[in-house]
Amino acid sequence: MMISKLVMATNNAHKLREAMEIFGPLGIEIISQREAGADCSPEENGATFDDNALIKAEAVYNIVRLPVIADDSGLCVDALQGRPGVYSARYAPKGEECVRLLDEMKNVPDEKRQAHFACSIAYIDSEMRRCFNGCCTGMIGYEQRGKNGFGYDPVFIYAGRTLAEMKAEEKNNISHRAAALRELYEFLKERQGE
Question: Which of the residues are catalytic?
Fold first, then answer.
């Protein structure tokens, strides 16, 4: 099934630009849900990242009836039994996520500070529903470092540096979202060739 237009279940300009850069070589036009006429924000009450990505994608698909992608992602900390997980965006007031996380982790030793960012991207069209996943594994530091990034980036350490200490292109090469988008790219490339 050739795809000429893909609706991204977001109005986030950064996410749209990233998707346009990745899928541009396939000749697929990426538009926001607002541009497609889907002004909705369904409740993300799923138990997993896949569930939440599918909830968003289905809500938009049911309005636009075009191929749709939607993502959900978050931070999973081993010492906190996987929290904040699917509640990453609601774990603390905006801007205070790192403060709360560092407080909860203050007595956790080095060898137990493992964590990973997970991303699920749901794809829906008239024929299928499918999720693509990506992961970035690292550890939680003891303080916030770096000025780049957002959310938990200042405390998430990958290869000795926090994500907030990396340039955007460095982070995008190793990020959980980039890994999921690469999986989706390969899938769409195959579909374009059918």
Answer: 72
Instruction: Supply φ then ψ for residue 28, to 5 degrees.
Output: -100, 125
Helix (H) or strand (E) holding 164: none
82: left (phi over 0), alpha (psi -120 to 50) or beta: left
Amino acid at 90: R
Single pTM value for the model: 0.89
Chain segment 120-144, per-residue pLDDT in tens: 999 999 999 999 999 999 999 999 9
Strands 129-140 and 156-158, sheet pairing: antiparallel
Q: How confident is the model at residue 23 (pLDDT cuts 50, 70, 90)?
A: confident
DSSP 20-45: HHHHGGGT-EEEEHHHHT--------
Conformational region of residue 92, where left means phi above 0, alpha means psi within -120 to 50, and beta covers everything else: beta
